């Protein structure tokens, strides 16, 4: 029998230059019922995924189930005005990225009946109205996702991989998280008589990382050569003053010589930046923290954290390696190395100078970030590269299996994760709305909260913006009830908002309610305490002390004005893929979105914008970038005035 078109017979196993040929061979091997596992986020074998999906679309006799998480899609502008800013950015950043056809069709409601897409973590907030995604969401801890995939009948695993420069190995690089456990499970399944396939898609743009992520060629049943294509960039979010206020206080809870885990998003970037500020610009860090101390913050900082630079350094153990974590490694803050056998680790703890071998300073399960992060990973020095170990998420997110070693490594652990809301009993609401619609997923948040309780000196820290804007109105994120619970109240620990730190561990329901009220925005403290009193958790005559009743955005701005003016609280503290004009336009459009949420708000904002019938000269370069310097009609003239108003309102001299 002749090999399929595109087949290159190598040493050891199949190597393809045609995705379609590899799909044909795989279906011939496993059958016409394919349960395809794709890694979370970046590491998907997009070309192979598209080839499997096209085959199922063309042949209704093929039953395809895709089991994955975070199917990344190129962001689309929500309206024509936003498109003026976002479309050129998307063209620049995502040129060469192969979009996932199944994700595109799912957005359009066009998945064929013989294709099911199951995800255990959705792209945050993008699929709330997508019935297919909501119905096929699988709620699972990250550590259990591999088990659930196997239970669903997984028989094909397809992952993007890196080729070792000048060598013969391959790297799971961005996603060994589940694959290091799933590939052996599929091998066992095959040995028991059920055909399976482990496939790799080579992308020459993917950084090669060694240690656990490096695998031999026989890890795969077949390889597809995808050439070089764009890695999906996740641009850095902007970090406002409230985010910086939260980050400064959170960073003060980190103990020198301890362990660090940080999630993704603006609050995570704020914490990473504040840790850098604490180390490199300590006087500015202390000044900011002192200006913000509220609630139980002062005592807790002294008890479990600190304000000093990091002499011993930190060890990073985080399911996600963010740009912030990489910067902390590059700046030498993540420098407490750990070792993978218990005796060596104990010896290093007792006498650090007695262990010669370089340790691992950062364990990660997957990475995702801006394009600049991928470039830095590609060009890391060999010494720094050896300090990173991408590995199994079951190792990172749990103590099970290697508990004695993990306990020694993860001393003074601080696990930072973000929530959408916290209720009056201290439970975190992070992944779903009250009506059951899924915003994102549980991921590892529950694991880290439980692990913090299990570790002798570990703490789980929930980062929470005190308010959000919905329908043009400010609303509190500290609520008495509401939303699906992600971390239950019996695991409540520390909550940080821009207004302070609430230590909830071991506290009574009364004390929890009071401490949460202290870190509420003052516009909502009365409503929250009224609900607590109605529930009998707080006495009717209780009142907050005056020092906690001035939690306002204006107070934060005033407290941190000097630190901001000194340049220590930038809008993009870790850098950005956006130009200067794009940064300011993005901030302006976000301001404009909040003030045009309703018809009444929009009408009032348009009236205010009329003063800029003739835009000031300083606005012209921004208007030119938006193609609004010379409006083509009344509609574009209104857009010009609105953008000018937003630029003026968000301008900082």
UniProtKB/TrEMBL annotation:
Gene3D superfamilies: 4-hydroxybutyrate coenzyme like domains (3.30.750.70), Acetyl-CoA hydrolase/transferase C-terminal domain (3.40.1080.20). Residues 369-531 form the Acetyl-CoA hydrolase/transferase C-terminal domain. Keywords: Hydrolase. The keyword Hydrolase applies. SUPFAM superfamilies: NagB/RpiA/CoA transferase-like. Pfam families: AcetylCoA_hyd_C (PF13336). InterPro entries: AcetylCoA_hyd_C, AcetylCoA_hyd_C_sf, ActCoA_hydro, NagB/RpiA_transferase-like. It comes from the Bacteria. GO terms for biological process: acetate metabolic process. The keyword Transcription regulation does not apply. GO terms for molecular function: acetate CoA-transferase activity; hydrolase activity. PANTHER family: ACETYL-COA HYDROLASE, ACETYL-COA HYDROLASE-RELATED. This is Acetyl-CoA hydrolase. It comes from Marinicauda algicola.
């Amino acid at each position: 029998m002749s090999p399929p078109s595109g087949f290159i017979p190598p040493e050891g196993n199949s190597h393809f230059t045609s995705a379609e040929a590899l799909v044909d061979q795989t279906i011939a091997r496993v059958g016409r019922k394919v349960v395809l596992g794709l890694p979370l986020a970046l590491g998907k074998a997009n070309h192979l995924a598209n080839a499997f999906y096209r085959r199922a679309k063309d042949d209704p006799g093929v039953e395809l189930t895709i089991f994955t998480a975070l199917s990344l899609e190129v962001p689309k502008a929500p309206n024509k005005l936003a498109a003026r800013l976002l479309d050129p950015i998307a063209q620049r950043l995502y040129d060469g990225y192969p979009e996932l056809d199944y994700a595109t069709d799912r957005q359009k409601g066009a998945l064929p009946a013989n294709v099911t897409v199951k995800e255990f973590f959705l792209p945050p907030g993008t699929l709330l109205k997508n019935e297919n995604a909501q119905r096929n969401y699988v709620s699972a801890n990250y550590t259990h996702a591999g088990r659930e995939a196997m239970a669903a009948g997984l028989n094909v695993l397809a992952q993007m991989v890196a080729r070792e420069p000048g060598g013969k190995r391959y790297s799971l690089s961005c996603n060994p998280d589940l694959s290091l456990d799933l590939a052996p499970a599929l091998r066992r399944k095959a040995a028991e008589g059920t055909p399976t396939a482990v496939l790799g898609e080579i992308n020459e743009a993917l950084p090669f990382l060694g240690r656990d992520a490096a695998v031999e060629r026989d890890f795969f049943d077949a390889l597809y050569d995808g050439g070089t294509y764009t890695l999906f960039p996740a641009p850095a979010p902007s970090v406002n003053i409230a985010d910086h206020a939260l980050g400064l206080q959170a960073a003060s809870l980190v103990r020198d010589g301890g362990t660090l885990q940080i999630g993704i998003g603006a609050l995570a970037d704020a914490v990473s930046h504040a840790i850098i500020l604490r180390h490199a610009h300590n006087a500015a860090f202390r000044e900011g923290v002192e200006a913000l101390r509220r609630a139980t913050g002062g005592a807790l900082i002294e008890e479990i954290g600190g304000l000093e630079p990091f002499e011993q350094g930190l060890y990073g153990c985080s399911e996600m390696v963010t740009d912030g974590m990489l910067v902390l490694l590059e700046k030498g803050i993540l420098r407490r190395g750990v070792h993978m056998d218990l005796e060596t680790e104990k010896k290093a703890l007792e006498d650090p100078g007695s262990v010669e071998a370089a340790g691992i300073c950062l364990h990660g399960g997957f990475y995702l970030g801006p394009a600049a992060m991928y470039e830095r990973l590609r060009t890391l020095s060999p010494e720094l590269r050896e300090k990173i170990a991408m590995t199994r998420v079951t190792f990172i997110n749990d103590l099970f299996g290697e508990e004695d070693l993990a306990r020694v490594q993860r001393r003074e652990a601080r696990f930072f994760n973000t929530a959408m809301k916290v209720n009056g009993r201290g439970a975190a609401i992070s992944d779903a709305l009250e009506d059951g619609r899924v915003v994102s997923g549980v991921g590892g948040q529950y694991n880290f909260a439980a692990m913090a309780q299990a570790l002798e000196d570990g703490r789980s820290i929930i980062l929470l913006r005190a308010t959000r804007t919905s329908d043009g109105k400010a609303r509190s994120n500290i609520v008495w009830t509401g939303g699906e619970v992600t971390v239950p109240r019996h695991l409540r620990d520390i909550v940080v908002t821009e207004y302070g730190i609430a230590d909830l561990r071991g506290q009574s329901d009364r004390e929890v309610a009071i401490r949460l009220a202290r870190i509420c925005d003052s516009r909502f403290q009365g409503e929250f305490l009224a609900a607590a009193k109605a529930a009998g958790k707080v006495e009717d005559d209780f009142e907050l002390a005056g020092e906690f009743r001035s939690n306002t955005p204006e107070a934060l701005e005033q407290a941190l004005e000097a630190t901001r003016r000194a340049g220590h609280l930038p809008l993009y503290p870790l850098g950005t893929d956006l130009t200067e004009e794009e940064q300011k336009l993005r901030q302006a459009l976000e301001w404009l979105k909040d003030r045009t949420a309703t018809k009444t708000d929009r009408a009032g904002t348009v009236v205010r914008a009329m003063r800029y019938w003739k835009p000031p000269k300083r606005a012209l370069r921004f208007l030119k970038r938006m193609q609004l310097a010379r409006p083509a009609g009344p509609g574009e003239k209104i857009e010009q005035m609105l953008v000018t108003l937003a630029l003026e309102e968000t301008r900082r001299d």
